[in-house]
Here is the input.
Amino acid sequence: MASIAIETSALCKTFEQGGATVVALDSVDIELREGEMTLLMGPSGSGKSTFISALGGLQAPSAGDVLFRGESLWSLPERRLNQFRREYCGFVFQSGGLFPSLTALQQIAIPLTYVGVSRTEAVEKAAAVLAEVGLADREDSLPGEMSGGQNQRVAIARMLAKDPYLIFCDEPTSALDSENGAVVARLLQRTAHERNAMILCVTHDERLMPFADRVLRIADGRIVADIDQPADNPRSATQQQQTRQQEPSKEGTL
Ligand code: ADP
Ligand code: MG
Here is the structure.
């Protein structure tokens, strides 16, 4: 089996709203693996965004914890929590969050210069990730000159430029038509496989299912289904084979 990238332990989140308590996450225990694109699906209000924000170090849970490399994320001091987000996490949100007045190349290169990358290196890196998402010819385009799908690919390229180990996407295809949604989903799955990254992708779009290695379903803040996708992609097939091969030797050592 692939290694665990990050996990939750009895993760709970409640909100007080007009005197009532809303339970957004109800004691979630889940392990997310590296090298896999996991979809988190569920109806509106089921806790998907809250789950991402607790795992990505954006919003503290009410109880329980997130464990990353043996450490309790929500016991870390603020400075180390910021470091966790900066060094390990990448986020892609529904709207893409691009700046209207910057070209595709600038959207990616400018943030890199803020974290100390030289201008030349930042431009080279930006060009490389744009090529990776199939937009080498759109370096100089502004968001208003591109389709929704192309803009969402720029947002993904910007995230990839950081090369994050943990990638969190919140409804990244909800503003796209099926064709563009499929392009983005395929790109995310390829990223998980090629970079051995953990991708958690929130969606309520069933059309993304063929691109996932694993599908989690959430309802009322609880994980109600956890399904490894059948091996219709080469990587899943390899993984299952490795698991089978490991089993006898594992038993032997016990
Ligand atoms: P989803 O992303 O699946 O649509 P959310 O995680 O955004 O769901 O929300 C889960 C539940 O928590 C909902 O009932 C929502 O109204 C509530 N909730 C989320 N954020 C807040 C907040 N900041 N204040 C009050 N209630 C919230
Ligand atoms: Mg949401």
Remarks:
- Confidence is low (pLDDT under 50) at residues 234-254.
- Strands lie at 4-17, 20-33, 37-41, 63-68, 71-72, 89-93, 166-170, 198-203, 214-219, 222-228.
- DSSP finds seven helices and ten strands in the chain.
- Residues 4-98+164-246 form a domain with the Rossmann fold fold (CATH 3.40.50.300).
